[in-house]
Every structure is written in C-alpha cells, then in structure tokens.
Amino acid sequence: MNKDEQFGFLSKLTVNELKSLAKQLNINIAKGDKKDQVIEKIVSESSIASILEKLGISDLENESLEIAKKGLINQKRQRIITSIGVLTGLVALLVTLYINRSKIIPSSYQLHNQASLFQNPDSYNILLLPFGSSQKCELETIICEREVEERFNLLKEQNDSLNIEVQVYQGVNTTTRSLAFDRARSIGDSLGADLVVWGDYQSKCEWDSTKIRVKWASVETDIPFLDPQEDIEYQGIQDLSQIEEGEVTGNVEEIVYWALARKDFSSANFGKSLAYLLKIKAQEKIEYAVIFNAIGRCYHELDQQAKAAQYYSKAIELNPENADFYNNRGYFFHAQKRYAEALVDYNKAIALNPGDANFYNNRGELYKDQERYAEALTDYNKAIELGPKHAVIYNNRGHFFYAQKRYVEALADYNKAIALNPGGASFYNNRGGLYEDQDRYEEALADLSTAIDLGHEDVNTYYLRGKSYEKLGEKEKARMDLEKVGELRNLQK
Q1: 277 with 291: CB under 8 angstroms?
Q2: Which residues, in sequence order, are CB contacts of 3 under 8 Å at separation 6+?
Q3: CB atoms within 10 A of CB 2
Q4: What does the alpha-carbon distance between residue 237 and residue 256 come to, in Å, rounded to a whole number?
Q5: Strand 247-248's sheet: what is its strand order?
Q6: How much is the pLDDT for 249?
Q7: Residue 340, CA distances (Å) to 226, 244, 369, 419 in order
Q8: Average pLDDT over residues 119-123
Q9: Taking burial as the number of CB atoms within 10 A of a residue's CB, which of 49, 246, 294, 336 is the most buried?
Q10: What is the DSSP string of 74-93?
Q11: By the 8 A CB rule, do 366 and 342 touch?
Q12: What angle do the packed helices 425-437 and 407-420 form, to 10 degrees?
C-alpha cells in the first residue's frame, strides 16, 4: 500500500476533526489553514502508526480501508458524546441512545410544557434539529447537525461580540424529517429558540455524494426589510448553504449573520444590521438579491442615499421579476422627491404583482404628493379593496380626505384605522388634528394625549394639544405643552 492510499482516509474527517487530531499529534496548525493544508501537515509530520494510535485503529496493512473508515466513524461518535455535556440530562440521554443506534425515538415531537434548552436568556439562541443523514443513513457516517454546530461555535469563538448560543435537539421522529417553516417555528418557540436550523435530503447518503439542503426559520415572523405594511417574510437565502461529502462546504455562517441583521433592523439598530449584512459574501446571483435589497434598506435608513440607490438597483438587476424590490426602490425615490423614477418603479411593481394592496397605497401617496388627486383616490380605493384590514391604508386615505377638507370621510377612515390597530399612535394624532380643526377640543385633547402616551413625540402634536388646553381654559397645561414644542424644535436644529 503506497503513502497516498495509507493516508487517503484522512479526507473523510472534517477540518475541525483534523485540527483536533493535529493537536493530539503536537502539530501546529495555523488559524486560516484549509482542509488540504491540514492533511498535508499531518502527513508530512507524522507516521501512519502514530495517526492510527490516536484514532484507535490498528495497522492498515492488515485491514481494509472500509474497516478503517468504520473506525474513524466510531472515533467521531465518541467525540460527539463528549461534546454535549452542556445539554440537559434528557437531551444527553437521547443523543447517547441515538449514537448507539437505538431505535427508541419519540413517535412525535414532544413539545408540551418543554423547558428551554438554552442557558442564557440574553443570547441569540439557535436550535439545530437532526438532519436527514443523521438517522437515515444506513451506516450513520455523517452527523450533519454536529458539523453545523461546530461551524456556529467556531464563528462565536472568532467573534467576541457575537452573543449566540447553539443547541441540538434530538427529539425528532424520522417520519417527520421534512418540516414546514411554521412547524419549525413552533418547535423553536417551545424550546426557547430565536432561530431554527434543519436540513432535507437532496441525494443518497454516501461519503462522496451526500447533499443536504440547509433550511432555517426565525421564530419571530418579523418583516424588517420590506415596507412595514407587508405581511410576507423573506427566506431568500435558505438554500445558499449545503452540506456535501460529510462536512459543511457552504457559508452556513451567513444564516446567523442574516438572522441577526433582521433582528437588529426590526429594532431600528440599522448600523448593526448593516454590519452583519456586510459580513455576508453576497455574490452576483439571484439567490443573493435579497441581501443587496436589505443592504439598500439599511443605507436608506442611515441616510446614505447614493449607496442605498446602488444596492436597490443591484437587487433589481439580479432579480428583475421581484415586485418588492421595485416597490422598495420606488419608496426610496419617492422619499428623495424623484417622483418620475418612483412612479416607474411603482408601476413595475404593480405590473408584476397586481394583487398587492401596498403597491397601490404607495402609488396613491405619490399621486397625492404630485397633486394628481383623482388618480390618488383611485389607488387608495383599490388598495382598500385588496387589503381591507390594512389600517395604514385607511389612515392614508383619511389624510387625503382631510387635506381635501372632506372631513366626514376623513373621520370615517381614521376611525376605521384605529379600530383595526388601536396601538397606532399616528392614527390618534391625525384624528386629534381633525377634531381640533373642527373645534371639538375635548375629543382632540383625548386623542392627542393618547398619541403622546403611545410614543408620538412630535412638535405638531404638542402644539395642537397646547391649543386645545388653551381653548378649554387650562392655561398652565397649555404653557407646558408650548414649552415642550420649543424643546423639540431645539433638538431638531
């Protein structure tokens, strides 16, 4: 047997396992060394006997490579057993039973009254569910969720500021392997996770041909990179990472960056969100269009307009059939008062998806700003026809009627908006302004106070409430509100 044949089985180990072996052999491995480089160092600095001794395998001269491979698999399982000591006793028991090929697996997900698997409530918790190859491979040679776990934990080690916790949950029936996103969210929610990651088969389970698609789902169904009125959640990079030939070869870390970026964006931490997005190696492929769109959204919020336009346009270039991208860029152009360009994009969004209420709403807002009032009203009406439960659209049409001094219709729309969303501060503010305009000061005072209580800290709100207090004879309260107006104006300078 030549040297290449003797050492060939090392390629079956993951890069992290190879690094662990190198450490046992007192071989120095650089932080950035790739798998082939690690193997080369092991081969050049060690004997076959010393390697086999560390792996617990007898002389390969007297055993086939297949037997050696099984020995490596057993070694791998032993390392996995020792790596899960941080899990609860129940989960550790399930893992041990699984590794010993026991078929004692729950017949369904046991989720009722489950305690959280996670130790730190302040961390971003990632739950890994067993991948297809873990329990479906005849030889059970590939334990994919452990590969992903290693990659996520290595990511955490390399980023001190990355506050994540990763756990693996084994209570899964092999017959329920392929999960729907809502089911994955339900499992994650029951176990205290923020993000759930799992996988599906794409081909048979062998060392040289296994391919598993990595899927993920945020437990919170947030929608941070679309217009706030949208009720659709992007999952555009769910297929970007794959596990091939027994180890993670895709940039599975990008799922973590993407999830954290979404979380920070929804909390208005646009700078942090952007920083995570820029860690993703966005390629000029259609699958990455959503990343370019999200980066554009962050730059838009950070008032870096040139970059926002650049990234919005790149998203459209990569996926010219995505209506949401045109809507987002149209919204950007509208905010910049680039009305002609905004209209082109809104028209394109509607052409691609004529059933989306938000697109008509946004174009209606544009027509209103262009003083094309008949077209604006037509679009508002169409938006409400398509989205009769969208409070924002009623509010916008109410604002349109108010500007037209059609007060009865405006009041009806404001009432509807508040009925649909009683927590909408701007809705109370707008209705309060209408009441004040109609000399209905007590009703105006009630609405404007509610808007302020809900966080609507606006100069005009305090000014109108101050006027209402003055009309009702409450001079001191009127004076305090007018002082607040001055403070807010100074902050805006």
Answers
A1: yes
A2: 43
A3: 7
A4: 11
A5: 164-168, 124-128, 195-201, 211-218, 242-244, 247-248
A6: 55
A7: 22, 48, 12, 35
A8: 83
A9: 294
A10: HHHHHHHHHHTTTS-HHHHH
A11: yes
A12: 160
Task: Using the structure block, give the residue that is written with the tokens 């739950």.
Answer: 127
CA distance 4 to 300: 55
How many other β-carbons are positioned within 10 Å of the β-carbon of residue 108? 10
- Is residue 456 helix, strand or coil? coil
Residues 291, 237 contacting (CB under 8 angstroms) = yes
* Phi, psi for 150 (deg, rounded to 5): -60, -45
Tokens 């090392």 sit on residue? 10
Tell me: the pLDDT tens digits for 303-350?
A: 999 999 999 999 999 999 999 999 999 999 999 999 999 999 999 999
Residues 6+ apart with CB under 8 A from 465: 432, 444, 445, 448, 449, 452, 481
Q: How far is CA 205 from CA 131, 140, 293, 317, in A?
A: 11, 9, 36, 37
Distance between CA atoms of 328 and 303, rounded to whole angstroms? 15
What is the β-pairing status of strands 124-128 and 164-168? parallel
Which is nearest to 17 in space by CA: 4, 3, 29? 29
Task: Find the Cα–Cα–Cα–Cα dihedral 80, 83, 87, 88, rounded to 10°.
Answer: 70
- Among 303, 375, 401, 312, CA closest to 349: 312
Which residue blocks in 159-301 are alpha helix, DSSP H? 181-190, 253-266, 270-277, 289-301
Q: How far apart are CA 353 and CA 346, in angstroms?
A: 10
Q: What are phi and psi of 239, to 5 degrees?
A: -100, 10
Q: Measure the N-to-C terminal CA separation of the chain; round to a whole number of Å.
A: 80
C-alpha–C-alpha distance, residues 285 and 317, integer Å: 10
State whether residue 166 is helix, strand or coil: strand
Half-sphere CA count of 157, side-chain side, radius 13 A: 7
Q: Which of 49-63, 223-237, 284-298, 467-481 has the lowest mean pLDDT?
A: 223-237
**Average pLDDT estimate for 202-208:** 48
Residue 234 has pLDDT above 90, yes or no: no
Give pLDDT tens digits for 409-423.
Answer: 999 999 999 999 999
* Bridge partner residues of 213 (DSSP): 200, 242
Closest CA to 192 of 111, 295, 279, 95: 111
Q: Residue 182: CB partners within 8 Å, gap ≥ 6? A: none
- Residue 33's SS3 state is coil
* Secondary structure E strands in 383-440: none
Rounded CA-CA distance 88/372 in Å is: 64
Q: Which residue has the higher pLDDT, 283 or 61?
A: 283
Higher pLDDT, 290 or 95: 290
User: What letter represents residue 98's amino acid?
Assistant: Y
Residue pair 261/273 in contact by the 8 Å Cβ criterion: yes
How many CA atoms lie within 13 Å of 481's alpha carbon, on the beta-carbon side?
Answer: 23
